[in-house]
Design a protein that fits this description.
The chain is an all-alpha fold. It has two helices and no strands. Helix 1 runs antiparallel to helix 2. The chain is elongated. It starts with 5 loop residues before the first helix and ends with a helix.
Length: 53
């Protein structure tokens, strides 16, 4: 498995948030997608920190 780049992690989060917007009538799925997007943003943050050191 390859480590994603910061840009890939942000792109994944963006796709998940776009999908969450479509799921307005399915609150549990929308919340799950937002949680996954948040995880990808955390990965992007960690990758940025890793590049700084």
């Amino acid at each position: 498995m390859t480590i994603p780049t910061e840009e890939q992690a942000i792109a994944n989060a963006s796709r998940l948030l776009e999908r969450a917007e479509i799921e307005l009538t399915n609150l549990p799925l929308m919340e799950r997608l937002e949680g996954l997007a948040d995880s990808w943003l955390n990965v992007a943050h960690l990758l940025r920190e890793r590049e700084r050191t």
